[in-house]
Amino acid sequence: MKNKAKINSKNENGKNKAKSKKIMKIKNKNLMLKILSAIILFSFLAAFLFFLKNVNSKTSVIEDSDQYLDAYKEERLQMVDTQLRARDITDERVLEAMEKVPRHMFMPHSRNLAYRDHPVPIGYGQTISQPYIVALMAQELRIKEHEKILEIGAGSGYNAAVLAELAKEVYTIEIIGELAEWSENALKKTGYSNVYVKHADGYYGWEGKEFDAVIITAAANHVPQPLIDQLKIGGRLILPLSSPAGFQALTIINKTDEGLKTRSILGVRFVPMTGKAMES
Question: What pTM was estimated for this model as a whole?
Answer without folding.
Answer: 0.75
